[in-house]
Amino acid sequence: MIDRVDKYSFVARMPDEPGTLHRAAEIIKSYRGNINRIQYDRRIDPATVFFEVTATPATYSQMKEDLHAIGYLQETLPTLGFLRFSIYLPHEPGSLFDLLTYITGAGANIAYIDFDDQRCSSGKVTISLNVEETAIVESLLDRLKSRYRLEIIEYDTTGERLDDTVFYVRFAQAVRGLIGTAEDEFLLSFLQDVNHIVQELNSLGQDPREVFESILATGRTLKNTTKDRFYADVQRIRLSDDVEVFCFQMPGGGNIFLLRAPDETVMIDTGYGIYHEDAVRMFQHYGLGDLTRINRIYITHADADHCGAGGLFAAKAYTHTGSLAIIRQANRAYGSRSEASILEEVYTTVINLFSHFSAPEDLELFPDEPIGTRSIFPILARFTVHDIEFEVLESLGGHMHGQVYLFSPDHGIIFTADTLINFGSLDEDRKRYNSLADFLVTSVNVDSECARQERKALLELVRETDEELALHGRRCLVACGHGAVSVLSDGRLEAVGPIERYQAREVRGS
Protein backbone atom coordinates (compact mmCIF):
# COMPACT_ATOMS: atom_id res chain seq x y z
CA MET A 1 0.00 0.00 0.00
CA ILE A 2 1.35 3.41 -1.02
CA ASP A 3 1.08 6.11 1.63
CA ARG A 4 -1.01 9.11 0.61
CA VAL A 5 1.01 12.28 -0.03
CA ASP A 6 -0.65 15.64 0.59
CA LYS A 7 0.34 19.27 0.48
CA TYR A 8 0.63 21.08 3.82
CA SER A 9 1.56 24.59 4.85
CA PHE A 10 2.90 26.03 8.09
CA VAL A 11 4.41 29.20 9.46
CA ALA A 12 7.80 29.09 11.16
CA ARG A 13 9.03 31.77 13.53
CA MET A 14 12.76 31.35 13.90
CA PRO A 15 15.65 33.21 15.52
CA ASP A 16 17.31 35.76 13.25
CA GLU A 17 20.68 34.02 13.26
CA PRO A 18 22.83 31.93 10.89
CA GLY A 19 21.79 28.33 10.27
CA THR A 20 18.17 28.45 11.44
CA LEU A 21 16.64 28.12 7.98
CA HIS A 22 19.00 25.25 7.20
CA ARG A 23 17.99 23.51 10.42
CA ALA A 24 14.30 23.69 9.53
CA ALA A 25 15.00 22.38 6.02
CA GLU A 26 17.01 19.53 7.54
CA ILE A 27 14.05 18.44 9.66
CA ILE A 28 11.75 18.47 6.62
CA LYS A 29 14.29 16.48 4.59
CA SER A 30 14.77 13.93 7.36
CA TYR A 31 11.12 12.93 7.02
CA ARG A 32 11.27 12.82 3.22
CA GLY A 33 9.23 16.01 2.91
CA ASN A 34 9.47 18.02 -0.28
CA ILE A 35 9.46 21.83 -0.01
CA ASN A 36 7.11 23.18 -2.72
CA ARG A 37 7.17 26.80 -1.62
CA ILE A 38 9.23 28.85 0.79
CA GLN A 39 9.12 32.59 1.32
CA TYR A 40 11.25 34.67 3.65
CA ASP A 41 12.02 38.35 3.39
CA ARG A 42 13.82 39.98 6.32
CA ARG A 43 12.81 43.39 4.93
CA ILE A 44 9.23 42.48 5.88
CA ASP A 45 9.72 40.37 9.00
CA PRO A 46 13.13 39.06 10.05
CA ALA A 47 11.81 36.00 11.87
CA THR A 48 8.85 34.65 9.89
CA VAL A 49 9.17 31.99 7.17
CA PHE A 50 6.33 30.44 5.16
CA PHE A 51 6.58 26.83 4.03
CA GLU A 52 4.48 24.58 1.82
CA VAL A 53 5.55 20.94 1.77
CA THR A 54 4.33 17.63 0.40
CA ALA A 55 4.51 14.69 2.77
CA THR A 56 2.46 11.83 4.12
CA PRO A 57 0.11 12.70 7.00
CA ALA A 58 2.30 10.69 9.39
CA THR A 59 5.60 12.28 8.38
CA TYR A 60 4.06 15.76 8.42
CA SER A 61 3.00 15.19 12.03
CA GLN A 62 6.55 14.15 12.88
CA MET A 63 7.95 17.24 11.18
CA LYS A 64 5.64 19.45 13.21
CA GLU A 65 6.63 17.73 16.43
CA ASP A 66 10.34 18.30 15.77
CA LEU A 67 9.82 21.93 14.70
CA HIS A 68 7.65 22.51 17.76
CA ALA A 69 10.31 20.96 20.02
CA ILE A 70 12.93 23.51 18.95
CA GLY A 71 10.46 26.40 19.09
CA TYR A 72 10.27 27.03 15.35
CA LEU A 73 6.62 26.19 14.70
CA GLN A 74 4.27 29.16 15.01
CA GLU A 75 0.89 27.86 16.12
CA THR A 76 -0.53 30.93 17.85
CA LEU A 77 -0.68 34.65 17.22
CA PRO A 78 -0.02 36.49 20.47
CA THR A 79 -1.79 39.73 21.16
CA LEU A 80 1.15 42.10 21.28
CA GLY A 81 1.32 45.57 22.74
CA PHE A 82 3.75 48.43 22.21
CA LEU A 83 5.32 50.35 25.10
CA ARG A 84 7.64 53.32 24.82
CA PHE A 85 9.12 55.02 27.86
CA SER A 86 12.06 57.04 29.09
CA ILE A 87 14.01 56.07 32.20
CA TYR A 88 16.74 57.94 34.09
CA LEU A 89 19.72 55.86 35.12
CA PRO A 90 22.26 56.66 37.83
CA HIS A 91 25.65 57.60 36.40
CA GLU A 92 27.56 54.52 37.57
CA PRO A 93 29.07 51.36 36.00
CA GLY A 94 26.60 48.56 35.28
CA SER A 95 23.43 50.69 35.51
CA LEU A 96 22.39 49.97 31.90
CA PHE A 97 23.17 46.28 32.39
CA ASP A 98 20.91 46.18 35.45
CA LEU A 99 18.06 47.82 33.53
CA LEU A 100 18.33 45.35 30.67
CA THR A 101 18.33 42.49 33.17
CA TYR A 102 14.93 43.66 34.44
CA ILE A 103 13.55 43.85 30.88
CA THR A 104 14.92 40.48 29.80
CA GLY A 105 13.62 38.85 32.96
CA ALA A 106 10.13 40.14 32.19
CA GLY A 107 10.16 38.47 28.76
CA ALA A 108 9.81 41.74 26.86
CA ASN A 109 11.42 42.23 23.44
CA ILE A 110 13.33 45.48 22.91
CA ALA A 111 12.42 47.09 19.59
CA TYR A 112 14.31 50.36 20.09
CA ILE A 113 16.80 51.80 22.57
CA ASP A 114 18.50 55.19 22.58
CA PHE A 115 21.15 56.39 25.07
CA ASP A 116 24.24 58.62 24.78
CA ASP A 117 25.75 60.14 27.91
CA GLN A 118 27.47 62.85 25.84
CA ARG A 119 24.11 64.05 24.60
CA CYS A 120 22.50 64.29 27.99
CA SER A 121 23.98 64.28 31.47
CA SER A 122 20.74 63.11 33.09
CA GLY A 123 21.23 59.44 32.16
CA LYS A 124 18.04 59.39 30.08
CA VAL A 125 17.40 56.16 28.16
CA THR A 126 14.47 55.83 25.74
CA ILE A 127 13.21 52.31 25.11
CA SER A 128 10.45 50.75 22.99
CA LEU A 129 9.20 47.27 23.79
CA ASN A 130 7.00 44.70 22.08
CA VAL A 131 5.18 42.79 24.80
CA GLU A 132 2.71 39.89 24.69
CA GLU A 133 0.88 40.13 27.99
CA THR A 134 -0.66 43.17 29.67
CA ALA A 135 0.24 41.66 33.03
CA ILE A 136 3.92 41.58 31.97
CA VAL A 137 3.82 45.29 31.19
CA GLU A 138 2.24 46.17 34.50
CA SER A 139 4.65 44.00 36.49
CA LEU A 140 7.67 45.39 34.66
CA LEU A 141 6.58 48.99 35.09
CA ASP A 142 5.93 48.45 38.79
CA ARG A 143 9.47 47.09 39.25
CA LEU A 144 11.07 49.86 37.24
CA LYS A 145 9.09 52.61 38.99
CA SER A 146 10.25 51.33 42.36
CA ARG A 147 13.89 51.91 41.38
CA TYR A 148 14.03 54.55 38.62
CA ARG A 149 12.46 57.81 37.59
CA LEU A 150 10.28 56.77 34.64
CA GLU A 151 8.13 58.55 32.04
CA ILE A 152 5.70 56.60 29.83
CA ILE A 153 5.61 58.12 26.35
CA GLU A 154 3.22 55.70 24.66
CA TYR A 155 1.39 52.49 25.46
CA ASP A 156 -0.71 50.86 22.73
CA THR A 157 -2.47 47.47 22.85
CA THR A 158 -4.12 47.62 19.40
CA GLY A 159 -1.05 46.40 17.53
CA GLU A 160 -0.96 49.48 15.29
CA ARG A 161 2.28 50.78 16.77
CA LEU A 162 4.23 47.52 16.73
CA ASP A 163 7.49 47.67 14.83
CA ASP A 164 8.37 45.52 11.84
CA THR A 165 10.22 42.85 13.80
CA VAL A 166 6.76 41.37 14.33
CA PHE A 167 5.22 42.50 11.04
CA TYR A 168 3.06 39.43 10.41
CA VAL A 169 1.70 39.46 13.95
CA ARG A 170 0.81 43.11 13.50
CA PHE A 171 -0.86 42.39 10.15
CA ALA A 172 -2.85 39.50 11.66
CA GLN A 173 -4.05 41.75 14.48
CA ALA A 174 -5.21 44.29 11.90
CA VAL A 175 -7.12 41.57 10.02
CA ARG A 176 -8.68 40.34 13.28
CA GLY A 177 -9.88 43.88 13.92
CA LEU A 178 -11.59 43.95 10.52
CA ILE A 179 -13.35 40.59 10.64
CA GLY A 180 -14.02 40.27 14.36
CA THR A 181 -13.09 37.29 16.50
CA ALA A 182 -10.99 34.76 14.62
CA GLU A 183 -9.10 31.72 15.81
CA ASP A 184 -5.31 31.76 15.54
CA GLU A 185 -5.38 28.69 13.30
CA PHE A 186 -7.63 30.51 10.82
CA LEU A 187 -5.47 33.65 10.85
CA LEU A 188 -2.27 31.66 10.33
CA SER A 189 -3.86 29.98 7.32
CA PHE A 190 -4.98 33.39 6.06
CA LEU A 191 -1.43 34.70 6.48
CA GLN A 192 -0.23 31.84 4.28
CA ASP A 193 -2.64 32.91 1.55
CA VAL A 194 -1.72 36.58 1.81
CA ASN A 195 1.97 35.75 1.80
CA HIS A 196 1.47 33.87 -1.45
CA ILE A 197 0.07 37.04 -3.08
CA VAL A 198 3.01 39.00 -1.70
CA GLN A 199 5.50 36.46 -3.04
CA GLU A 200 3.88 36.46 -6.49
CA LEU A 201 3.59 40.25 -6.84
CA ASN A 202 7.09 40.72 -5.42
CA SER A 203 8.38 38.53 -8.26
CA LEU A 204 6.66 40.97 -10.63
CA GLY A 205 8.49 43.91 -9.06
CA GLN A 206 5.78 45.19 -6.71
CA ASP A 207 6.58 46.56 -3.26
CA PRO A 208 5.50 43.98 -0.64
CA ARG A 209 4.34 46.67 1.76
CA GLU A 210 2.04 48.11 -0.89
CA VAL A 211 0.51 44.65 -1.27
CA PHE A 212 -0.20 44.35 2.47
CA GLU A 213 -1.61 47.87 2.57
CA SER A 214 -3.88 47.20 -0.43
CA ILE A 215 -5.28 44.10 1.26
CA LEU A 216 -5.99 45.98 4.49
CA ALA A 217 -7.39 48.96 2.55
CA THR A 218 -9.86 46.60 0.87
CA GLY A 219 -11.13 45.34 4.23
CA ARG A 220 -11.18 48.80 5.81
CA THR A 221 -13.11 50.33 2.92
CA LEU A 222 -15.85 47.73 3.18
CA LYS A 223 -16.11 47.90 6.96
CA ASN A 224 -16.03 51.70 6.98
CA THR A 225 -18.89 52.05 4.49
CA THR A 226 -21.51 50.14 6.47
CA LYS A 227 -24.21 51.23 8.94
CA ASP A 228 -24.24 55.01 9.44
CA ARG A 229 -21.46 55.44 6.88
CA PHE A 230 -23.28 53.51 4.18
CA TYR A 231 -24.32 55.43 1.09
CA ALA A 232 -25.36 54.80 -2.51
CA ASP A 233 -26.06 56.72 -5.68
CA VAL A 234 -29.54 55.95 -6.93
CA GLN A 235 -31.25 56.16 -10.32
CA ARG A 236 -34.83 55.18 -11.06
CA ILE A 237 -35.96 54.85 -14.66
CA ARG A 238 -39.28 53.73 -16.09
CA LEU A 239 -38.95 50.93 -18.63
CA SER A 240 -42.65 50.50 -19.37
CA ASP A 241 -45.97 51.67 -18.01
CA ASP A 242 -45.75 49.08 -15.25
CA VAL A 243 -42.03 48.37 -14.71
CA GLU A 244 -39.45 50.67 -13.15
CA VAL A 245 -35.74 49.89 -12.75
CA PHE A 246 -33.77 51.09 -9.73
CA CYS A 247 -29.98 51.24 -9.92
CA PHE A 248 -28.13 51.33 -6.60
CA GLN A 249 -24.44 52.13 -6.91
CA MET A 250 -22.92 50.71 -3.76
CA PRO A 251 -19.99 52.43 -1.96
CA GLY A 252 -17.67 49.53 -2.86
CA GLY A 253 -18.17 46.91 -5.52
CA GLY A 254 -20.86 46.46 -8.14
CA ASN A 255 -24.37 47.76 -8.62
CA ILE A 256 -27.62 46.23 -7.41
CA PHE A 257 -30.60 46.55 -9.76
CA LEU A 258 -34.25 46.08 -8.79
CA LEU A 259 -37.02 45.86 -11.37
CA ARG A 260 -40.29 46.77 -9.69
CA ALA A 261 -43.36 45.31 -11.38
CA PRO A 262 -46.98 45.25 -10.13
CA ASP A 263 -46.80 41.67 -8.84
CA GLU A 264 -43.13 41.24 -7.89
CA THR A 265 -39.69 42.79 -7.63
CA VAL A 266 -36.82 41.15 -9.53
CA MET A 267 -33.22 41.64 -8.44
CA ILE A 268 -30.23 41.64 -10.75
CA ASP A 269 -27.01 41.11 -8.75
CA THR A 270 -26.94 41.27 -4.97
CA GLY A 271 -23.92 43.34 -3.92
CA TYR A 272 -21.56 42.28 -1.16
CA GLY A 273 -22.86 40.35 1.82
CA ILE A 274 -21.47 42.97 4.19
CA TYR A 275 -23.91 45.54 2.74
CA HIS A 276 -27.00 43.35 2.98
CA GLU A 277 -28.69 44.94 6.00
CA ASP A 278 -27.89 48.45 4.80
CA ALA A 279 -29.22 47.66 1.32
CA VAL A 280 -32.48 46.26 2.68
CA ARG A 281 -33.08 49.45 4.69
CA MET A 282 -32.33 51.46 1.54
CA PHE A 283 -34.83 49.43 -0.50
CA GLN A 284 -37.49 50.11 2.11
CA HIS A 285 -36.64 53.82 2.05
CA TYR A 286 -37.45 53.86 -1.67
CA GLY A 287 -40.78 52.13 -1.17
CA LEU A 288 -39.67 48.77 -2.52
CA GLY A 289 -41.36 46.91 0.31
CA ASP A 290 -40.07 43.99 2.32
CA LEU A 291 -38.01 41.13 0.99
CA THR A 292 -41.05 38.92 0.32
CA ARG A 293 -41.62 40.80 -2.95
CA ILE A 294 -38.19 39.69 -4.21
CA ASN A 295 -38.69 36.11 -5.40
CA ARG A 296 -36.22 36.05 -8.31
CA ILE A 297 -32.55 37.04 -8.47
CA TYR A 298 -30.50 36.98 -11.66
CA ILE A 299 -26.76 36.79 -11.06
CA THR A 300 -24.57 38.04 -13.90
CA HIS A 301 -21.34 36.50 -12.60
CA ALA A 302 -19.62 35.02 -9.55
CA ASP A 303 -17.56 37.94 -8.22
CA ALA A 304 -18.39 38.63 -4.57
CA ASP A 305 -19.65 42.14 -5.29
CA HIS A 306 -22.28 40.71 -7.66
CA CYS A 307 -23.45 37.58 -5.87
CA GLY A 308 -22.00 37.76 -2.35
CA ALA A 309 -25.32 38.45 -0.62
CA GLY A 310 -27.18 35.76 -2.55
CA GLY A 311 -27.51 33.44 0.44
CA LEU A 312 -29.10 36.18 2.53
CA PHE A 313 -32.25 36.37 0.37
CA ALA A 314 -34.98 33.72 0.36
CA ALA A 315 -35.46 34.16 -3.39
CA LYS A 316 -34.50 31.66 -6.09
CA ALA A 317 -31.32 32.70 -7.88
CA TYR A 318 -30.62 32.09 -11.56
CA THR A 319 -27.09 31.92 -12.90
CA HIS A 320 -24.66 30.22 -15.29
CA THR A 321 -23.15 26.79 -14.59
CA GLY A 322 -19.72 28.45 -14.69
CA SER A 323 -20.71 30.84 -11.91
CA LEU A 324 -21.77 27.95 -9.71
CA ALA A 325 -18.43 26.23 -10.35
CA ILE A 326 -16.50 29.39 -9.44
CA ILE A 327 -18.46 29.77 -6.20
CA ARG A 328 -17.75 26.14 -5.28
CA GLN A 329 -14.07 26.32 -6.25
CA ALA A 330 -13.59 29.74 -4.55
CA ASN A 331 -11.40 30.81 -7.45
CA ARG A 332 -12.60 33.64 -9.68
CA ALA A 333 -10.30 32.46 -12.48
CA TYR A 334 -11.80 28.96 -12.60
CA GLY A 335 -12.67 27.89 -16.15
CA SER A 336 -10.33 30.42 -17.75
CA ARG A 337 -6.79 30.29 -19.07
CA SER A 338 -5.78 32.12 -15.86
CA GLU A 339 -7.17 29.34 -13.68
CA ALA A 340 -3.76 28.45 -12.20
CA SER A 341 -3.09 32.05 -11.13
CA ILE A 342 -2.21 32.24 -7.45
CA LEU A 343 -3.25 35.91 -7.44
CA GLU A 344 -6.79 35.15 -8.62
CA GLU A 345 -7.30 32.26 -6.22
CA VAL A 346 -6.02 34.04 -3.14
CA TYR A 347 -7.77 37.32 -4.00
CA THR A 348 -11.05 35.35 -4.06
CA THR A 349 -10.30 34.12 -0.53
CA VAL A 350 -9.44 37.63 0.66
CA ILE A 351 -12.45 39.43 -0.81
CA ASN A 352 -14.89 36.69 0.23
CA LEU A 353 -13.64 37.01 3.81
CA PHE A 354 -13.76 40.80 4.04
CA SER A 355 -17.10 41.12 2.23
CA HIS A 356 -18.92 38.42 4.27
CA PHE A 357 -19.57 36.27 1.21
CA SER A 358 -22.81 34.28 1.46
CA ALA A 359 -23.33 32.00 -1.54
CA PRO A 360 -26.83 31.73 -3.02
CA GLU A 361 -28.45 28.49 -1.90
CA ASP A 362 -31.64 28.13 -3.96
CA LEU A 363 -30.04 28.07 -7.42
CA GLU A 364 -31.39 27.34 -10.86
CA LEU A 365 -28.92 27.15 -13.73
CA PHE A 366 -29.36 28.50 -17.23
CA PRO A 367 -29.32 25.79 -19.92
CA ASP A 368 -25.94 24.96 -21.41
CA GLU A 369 -27.21 24.62 -24.97
CA PRO A 370 -27.92 27.94 -26.76
CA ILE A 371 -31.31 28.61 -28.35
CA GLY A 372 -29.96 31.24 -30.72
CA THR A 373 -27.36 33.98 -31.05
CA ARG A 374 -27.29 37.73 -30.63
CA SER A 375 -24.23 39.35 -32.21
CA ILE A 376 -21.31 37.11 -31.12
CA PHE A 377 -23.09 35.92 -27.99
CA PRO A 378 -25.09 32.70 -27.58
CA ILE A 379 -28.63 33.14 -26.22
CA LEU A 380 -29.04 30.66 -23.37
CA ALA A 381 -32.57 31.48 -22.22
CA ARG A 382 -35.36 34.03 -22.15
CA PHE A 383 -37.42 35.28 -19.21
CA THR A 384 -39.97 38.00 -18.59
CA VAL A 385 -40.52 40.57 -15.91
CA HIS A 386 -44.17 41.50 -16.26
CA ASP A 387 -44.36 42.83 -19.87
CA ILE A 388 -40.59 42.95 -20.54
CA GLU A 389 -38.81 40.01 -22.15
CA PHE A 390 -35.08 39.50 -21.61
CA GLU A 391 -32.54 37.38 -23.40
CA VAL A 392 -29.74 35.77 -21.39
CA LEU A 393 -26.57 36.25 -23.45
CA GLU A 394 -23.51 34.15 -22.63
CA SER A 395 -20.25 36.08 -22.55
CA LEU A 396 -17.04 34.75 -24.01
CA GLY A 397 -15.43 34.65 -20.55
CA GLY A 398 -13.26 37.77 -20.83
CA HIS A 399 -14.04 39.21 -17.43
CA MET A 400 -14.93 35.86 -15.88
CA HIS A 401 -16.05 32.42 -16.96
CA GLY A 402 -19.83 32.12 -16.83
CA GLN A 403 -20.64 35.83 -16.99
CA VAL A 404 -23.95 36.63 -18.69
CA TYR A 405 -25.66 39.76 -20.02
CA LEU A 406 -29.41 40.41 -19.80
CA PHE A 407 -30.81 42.17 -22.87
CA SER A 408 -34.27 43.45 -23.79
CA PRO A 409 -34.12 44.68 -27.40
CA ASP A 410 -37.80 45.72 -27.45
CA HIS A 411 -37.59 47.88 -24.30
CA GLY A 412 -34.01 48.99 -24.88
CA ILE A 413 -31.98 47.99 -21.85
CA ILE A 414 -28.95 45.73 -21.45
CA PHE A 415 -27.35 44.68 -18.17
CA THR A 416 -23.70 44.38 -19.16
CA ALA A 417 -22.18 43.09 -15.89
CA ASP A 418 -18.52 44.13 -15.74
CA THR A 419 -17.84 44.18 -19.48
CA LEU A 420 -19.11 47.75 -19.86
CA ILE A 421 -18.53 50.22 -17.01
CA ASN A 422 -19.10 53.96 -16.97
CA PHE A 423 -15.83 54.80 -15.23
CA GLY A 424 -16.44 58.53 -15.65
CA SER A 425 -19.48 58.35 -13.37
CA LEU A 426 -17.55 56.78 -10.48
CA ASP A 427 -16.56 59.09 -7.62
CA GLU A 428 -12.96 59.15 -6.42
CA ASP A 429 -13.62 56.81 -3.50
CA ARG A 430 -15.09 54.15 -5.80
CA LYS A 431 -12.24 54.54 -8.29
CA ARG A 432 -9.73 54.14 -5.48
CA TYR A 433 -11.45 51.02 -4.18
CA ASN A 434 -11.68 49.46 -7.65
CA SER A 435 -7.97 50.09 -8.19
CA LEU A 436 -7.14 47.85 -5.22
CA ALA A 437 -8.47 44.75 -6.98
CA ASP A 438 -6.68 45.75 -10.19
CA PHE A 439 -3.42 45.96 -8.26
CA LEU A 440 -3.83 42.70 -6.36
CA VAL A 441 -4.69 40.55 -9.42
CA THR A 442 -2.91 42.77 -12.04
CA SER A 443 -6.15 42.76 -14.08
CA VAL A 444 -9.74 42.08 -13.07
CA ASN A 445 -10.29 40.40 -16.45
CA VAL A 446 -9.18 36.77 -16.60
CA ASP A 447 -8.68 37.12 -20.38
CA SER A 448 -7.99 40.73 -21.39
CA GLU A 449 -8.02 40.13 -25.17
CA CYS A 450 -11.35 38.36 -24.94
CA ALA A 451 -12.73 41.16 -22.74
CA ARG A 452 -11.82 43.73 -25.42
CA GLN A 453 -13.67 41.68 -28.03
CA GLU A 454 -16.74 41.53 -25.78
CA ARG A 455 -16.70 45.29 -25.15
CA LYS A 456 -16.52 46.02 -28.86
CA ALA A 457 -19.42 43.67 -29.63
CA LEU A 458 -21.61 45.06 -26.81
CA LEU A 459 -21.02 48.66 -27.86
CA GLU A 460 -21.96 47.76 -31.42
CA LEU A 461 -25.08 45.98 -30.14
CA VAL A 462 -26.05 49.09 -28.15
CA ARG A 463 -25.44 51.31 -31.21
CA GLU A 464 -27.62 49.10 -33.42
CA THR A 465 -30.40 49.03 -30.82
CA ASP A 466 -30.22 52.82 -30.55
CA GLU A 467 -30.82 53.09 -34.28
CA GLU A 468 -33.89 50.87 -34.10
CA LEU A 469 -35.32 52.65 -31.05
CA ALA A 470 -34.69 56.09 -32.51
CA LEU A 471 -37.78 55.60 -34.69
CA HIS A 472 -39.78 55.71 -31.47
CA GLY A 473 -37.78 58.51 -29.85
CA ARG A 474 -36.08 56.18 -27.37
CA ARG A 475 -32.53 55.13 -26.47
CA CYS A 476 -30.88 51.88 -25.39
CA LEU A 477 -30.02 52.01 -21.70
CA VAL A 478 -26.71 50.50 -20.61
CA ALA A 479 -27.01 49.17 -17.07
CA CYS A 480 -23.32 48.80 -16.21
CA GLY A 481 -21.90 46.51 -13.56
CA HIS A 482 -20.35 49.59 -11.92
CA GLY A 483 -21.29 53.22 -12.37
CA ALA A 484 -24.42 54.93 -13.61
CA VAL A 485 -27.05 53.64 -16.01
CA SER A 486 -25.96 55.31 -19.24
CA VAL A 487 -26.56 55.88 -22.92
CA LEU A 488 -24.01 55.75 -25.71
CA SER A 489 -23.02 59.17 -27.02
CA ASP A 490 -20.26 59.55 -29.60
CA GLY A 491 -18.82 56.23 -28.53
CA ARG A 492 -18.78 57.10 -24.84
CA LEU A 493 -21.09 56.19 -21.99
CA GLU A 494 -22.97 59.13 -20.44
CA ALA A 495 -25.12 58.90 -17.32
CA VAL A 496 -28.81 59.31 -17.97
CA GLY A 497 -31.45 60.96 -15.81
CA PRO A 498 -31.18 62.33 -12.27
CA ILE A 499 -28.88 60.63 -9.76
CA GLU A 500 -29.50 61.14 -6.06
CA ARG A 501 -27.29 60.32 -3.11
CA TYR A 502 -28.71 58.09 -0.38
CA GLN A 503 -26.97 58.63 2.97
CA ALA A 504 -27.81 56.19 5.74
CA ARG A 505 -26.78 58.68 8.43
CA GLU A 506 -29.20 61.33 7.14
CA VAL A 507 -32.06 58.88 6.64
CA ARG A 508 -31.71 57.52 10.20
CA GLY A 509 -31.45 60.99 11.64
CA SER A 510 -34.59 62.27 9.91
Give an overview of the whole structure.
The protein is of the alpha+beta class. Helices cover 34% and strands 26% of the residues. A hairpin with a 4-residue loop joins strand 10 and strand 11. It is elongated. Helix 1 packs antiparallel against helix 2 and helix 6 crosses helix 7. The N and C termini lie far apart (72 Å). The strands form 5 sheets. It has an 8-stranded mixed sheet with strand order 14-13-12-11-10-9-8-23. It has a 6-stranded mixed sheet with strand order 15-16-17-18-19-20, with no helix packed on it. A 4-stranded antiparallel sheet has the order 5-6-4-7, covered by helices on one side. It folds into 4 domains: 64 residues, ACT domain (Alpha-Beta Plaits, 2-Layer Sandwich), CATH 3.30.70; 76 residues, Alpha-Beta Plaits, CATH 3.30.70; 57 residues, no CATH class; 283 residues, Ribonuclease Z/Hydroxyacylglutathione hydrolase-like (Metallo-beta-lactamase, Chain A).
Key terms:
elongated, Alpha-Beta Plaits, alpha+beta, 8-stranded mixed beta sheet, 510 residues
As for the number of domains, it is: 4
Number of helices: 14
* CATH homolog superfamily of the largest domain: Ribonuclease Z/Hydroxyacylglutathione hydrolase-like
Under CATH at level 1, the class of the largest domain stands as Alpha Beta
Classify the secondary structure makeup into a structural class.
alpha+beta
> What is the averaged pLDDT score?
91
C-alpha Rg (nearest Å): 28 Å
Q: List how many beta strands DSSP finds.
A: 23
CATH architecture of the largest domain, by name, is 4-Layer Sandwich
Approximately how much beta-strand content do the residues carry?
Answer: 25-35%
Largest sheet: 8 strands, mixed
Oligomer category: single chain
Distance between the first and last residues' Cα: 72 Å
Strand order of the largest sheet: 14-13-12-11-10-9-8-23
Helix fraction bin: 25-40%
The geometry reads as elongated
- Low-pLDDT stretches: none
Could you say what the CATH topology of the largest domain is called?
Answer: Metallo-beta-lactamase, Chain A
